[in-house]
Design goal:
The complex is a heterodimer of chains A (279) and B (124). Helices cover 59% and strands 3% of the residues of chain A. Chain A is mainly alpha-helical and 279 residues long. Chain A has one domain: Ferritin, core subunit, four-helix bundle (Ferritin, Up-down Bundle), CATH 1.20.1260.10. In chain A, strands 1-2 form a two-stranded antiparallel ribbon. Chain B has a single domain, classed as Roll (Ubiquitin-like (UB roll)). Helices cover 21% and strands 18% of the residues of chain B. Chain B has a 3-stranded antiparallel sheet with strand order 2-1-3, covered by helices on one side. In chain B, a hairpin with a 7-residue loop joins strand 1 and strand 2. The chains are: A mainly alpha (279), B alpha+beta (124). At the A-B interface, helix 2 and helix 6 of A face strand 2 and helix 1 of B.
């Protein structure tokens, strides 16, 4: 993959496709029917965004969009490791949804200024849908943060786990210097990561959750947390297991976690079983 | 825990609020968030609102909605076959020697161009 532009598009598209794929596991089993519809819609939106990026990548490479999306070997995928993780529980799912969509907001705001007009133009429609995603993510973040205790601790566990791998969303691309020099990428991923960190720090501080940014769970015994019913309950949970994997880096180079094999099998199985089939 | 919220939508901004269903949600913001994807994910309208079920002031007297006497004249079904009735009346008048020498008044209803045609009706 020598063309940095194609690399940029595939990183964007693969993130969206696989995030949508993983969110989609909640269809039919989300906490309640209304949320089932809302989250399934968000999942479909993300896959729809991948179609936009694969479309531009197809024009650039002369390859079929379906082949790009589903016809690559596992090490050809450039998604961040964060998005390939299984949904675990609702706390992790929402934490990742929040971190992913805030990161996407920063990423799209950056690309809206791209010198590459096809890319800058594509951000408009995607950002309109992202407004709902952010609203959804922030409202859930707020509700879970305010309790009851189990909701808040599961959210904290989810944030800790997802935060440890979220930097992978901003991993520098091979050929990034060239992209920045040409104005295709108006600012580096590292600068985007800092903008994103400011954004989430503001949100998390407002909820008294900014300690998770230091990797601290604060699940100390005897801490009182208000619940939605107004009662104060004692949080007796211990520290959460925090499976860090070096910042979740590697994805932009096609290096993935042990979870990716299953994602790839499941996601590309039908495509591989029926090559060239028309949908 | 979760309250029931009635959801109302508008197909166009000029339309009145129309009930489209209900969602269960713990608060107003969550009800609005969830109503969007529950009822408006196929382009069903341009706006919507939620009302807590408890905030609907319910009449609750079905007995007062029943007809105690014949009210068929209030129902559409009491006005079927009007064209035939009118033609019969004209024939009877003609046989009796009466002449209708004034044209039928023009239809003064103005169709609203922003409303979708519901088939037939005005303009025919």
């Amino acid at each position: 993959m020598s063309d940095p532009r194609l690399h940029l598009l595939l990183a964007l598209a693969d993130d969206e496709l696989i995030m949508g794929h993983q969110h989609g596991h909640w269809t039919g089993v989300a906490p309640h029917i209304e949320e089932d519809l809302a989250f399934s819609s968000i999942s479909q939106d993300e896959i729809g965004h991948s179609v936009v990026w694969y479309g531009i990548a197809a024009e650039l490479s002369g390859k079929d969009p379906d082949t790009l999306a589903l016809g690559r070997p596992p090490d050809g995928y450039l998604n961040a490791i964060l998005v390939e993780r299984p949904p675990r529980d609702w706390g992790y799912t929402l934490a990742r949804h929040y971190l992913y969509d805030t990161a996407e907001d920063v990423r799209l705001a950056t690309l809206a200024e791209s010198s590459w007009t096809a890319v800058a133009g594509a951000t408009g429609a995607i950002r309109r849908e992202e407004r709902y995603h952010l609203l959804h993510a922030r409202l859930w973040l707020d509700r879970l943060a305010k309790g009851p205790v189990e909701a808040r601790s599961r959210l904290v566990d989810g944030l800790l786990a997802a935060l440890s791998e979220a930097p992978g969303l901003f991993e520098a691309l091979p050929g990034e210097d060239e992209l920045v020099a040409e104005g295709v990428l108006p600012v580096t991923h590292e600068q985007q990561r800092r903008r994103w960190l400011e954004m989430i720090t503001a949100d998390l501080s407002g909820l008294g959750l900014d300690h998770v940014l230091d990797g601290e769970s604060h699940h100390t015994g005897g801490e009182f947390v208000p619940t939605s019913s107004g009662e104060l309950l004692t949080d007796e949970r211990g520290d959460a297991a925090n499976g860090t994997t070096g910042g979740g880096l590697g994805g932009r180079h096609g290096r993935h976690s042990e979870d990716f094999a299953q994602v790839w099998e499941e996601m590309t199985g039908t495509y591989r079983a029926h090559p060239g089939a028309s949908w | 825990m979760s309250e029931r919220w009635e959801v109302f939508g508008k197909r166009t901004l000029d339309d009145p609020w129309t009930s489209v269903g209900a969602v269960h949600a713990p608060d107003r913001e969550m009800a609005l968030l969830l109503a969007k994807e529950s009822f408006f994910r196929h382009g069903e309208g341009v706006d919507f609102a939620v009302v807590r079920l408890d905030d609907l002031h319910v009449f609750g007297r079905p007995d007062l909605l029943e007809f105690a006497t014949d009210k068929s004249y209030r129902l559409q079904s009491g006005y079927t076959g009007m064209g035939d009735k009118r033609r019969r009346a004209i024939d009877m008048a003609r046989e009796a020697g009466a002449v209708i020498d004034r044209p039928r008044p023009a239809d003064k209803r103005v169709p609203n161009p922003t409303h979708r045609s519901r088939g037939g009706g005005a303009g025919e």
